[in-house]
Every structure is written in C-alpha cells, then in structure tokens.
Amino acid sequence: MDTGFVQTPAVQDLLDRAAGVGSAGGNPRLKVILRDLIEQIMTLIVRHDISENEVWDAVNFLQSGAGEFGLLMPGSGIEHFLDLYMDAKDVEAGKTGGTPRTIEGPLYVAGAPLVDNDANLTTDPDETSTLYMSGRITGPDGEPVPGAILHVWHANSKGFYSHFDPTHEQTPFNNRRRIRVGDDGRYAFHSKMPNGYSVPPGGASDTLMKALGRHGNRPAHVHFFIEAPGYRVLTTQINFGDDPFAADDFAFGTREGLLPVPNRQGDSATIVFDFHLQRAEDAEEEHFSHRARLAVAA
Ligand code: FE
Fold it and tell me: Among 31, 67, 124, 216, which residue has the fewest nearby CB atoms (within 10 Å)?
C-alpha cells in the first residue's frame, strides 16, 4: 500500500486527537513534535509493510531493553548524530574552534573525589602499565582557563567501570576523579591503562548488534567533562589511536582530533593532550546536559 494512506482523513484525525491538537491544555511544542513522531512511525509501518507481530516484537524489545537505553543511543548512532547536529549548528552560528565534542556514554558517576593536579586515579590493584596524561586547558584566545574542573573516568584493564563492574571487584570511584586544574591551565594525572570493552553479552545492545551483523566493541578510551566559569562545558573523550577498534567504534565516539597514540615505553604510556574550550554565551552552556546520571556520595 502507498504511504498516502497515512494522509487519509481518518488517520489524520486520529493523529490530531492522539497529539491533543484540539485540546486547550498541554504543551504546544510537545503536541507538534509528538504528532510528527507518531506520523513518522505510521508512515514507516506502511512503507515497509510492518506486520502487527513485528510492531509488538519491537515494543517487546524496547520494553525489555529499557535498562540499556544508555547503550542503544550510541549504538544506534543517535548520540553521535546529536554531536554532528550541534557541530553544524555551531558552524552556522559562527562558533568554531575548540576540542571536538563527542558522546558522553552512560557510565559517568557524579560525586567522584575532588583532587589536585598530579592525582592518581586508580585506587585498586591492576596489573597493567601506567598511563601518564597531561596537557593544557586553554580558551579561544589561547588563554589559560582558570578554575577549571576536569572530570575523568575510564575502565580498568578488564574493560569494566567502577560502579558498573559485573565482577564487583572495584572500589567506588576507582578510575574516577574530578581534578582541580591549576590557574595556569595545566592538568596532569596518572592511572592504570584502560582497555576497550564490549556491550554486555546477551543484553539488548548485543541482540541488536547481532541482528544488524555488527559488533559491540569500543576501543580503549578515557572520558572527560571540563567545566570552568564563563566557558562552555566540554563533553569529550580520547580513544587510543593504536587500538584495533580505534576506527571501528560501535558507539561512534571516535572522532578526528581525539585519537592520540599513547607513547608506550616499558610499563608506562604517556599521552600529552591539550583541550581548547569555547566561551559560554549563556549560563546554560556552562552546565551539563539533562541526561540522568548516577550520583554517589564519595
Ligand atoms: Fe566508556
């Protein structure tokens, strides 16, 4: 059948009523967006002749996989699309420069210990080499950014994050800190080298990846937020340029400019990486996105 079916008066009337178009109450913006969304879904059903059973298969998948929405967002490319869209809008608004943003992912935990530069992020034993990372945090004119807080979080050598470790071997906030950056903009920390990881076997993301003939692996990486008064909060991460999955990240988090190759010497690895922030145009730009995050008292 032709997708023109969705344009018939009966379906259009159904859409109006479902989105509350005729009612005085409610949120006007939500009504418009939701009407569009439902219409798109109806159009997809007709275009691909999706059966009743297939619709319920999809609903069952989303219902049972709700706990993995944080992984389905990057795995489906939607989280990276948001970055591409925000980049494009920045270009349109003349806001260029700065370290590229990239996906946050679902594993940040608020409340990590606040420490000074040269901190050790790793509190648990981990038989792997030590990562030494340092660099400068500067603004658009090359000025050192004073009062910056660098949030760092990464996996251990088994690819597991504290607070989300299925082996329960890690103490809270292992490989997680907030670093008080010096007023000269220099930061430095060391920790045990993370490894890449894959989506949990048998979970919703794994099921989806297999159904698409894709893998669910990420290269080894380190996540960052940088916040500083007067500057736009930066959400980014570096992926290790020498990781086998560096160019094939299931989450699409790898970006040009965020792929340093660690300088590996014996049992240490060094990365020197500078961050460049943009100035905030309003208070909202200084704050994190509305994403729900686990918060734990340190
Ligand atoms: Fe990660």
Answer: 67
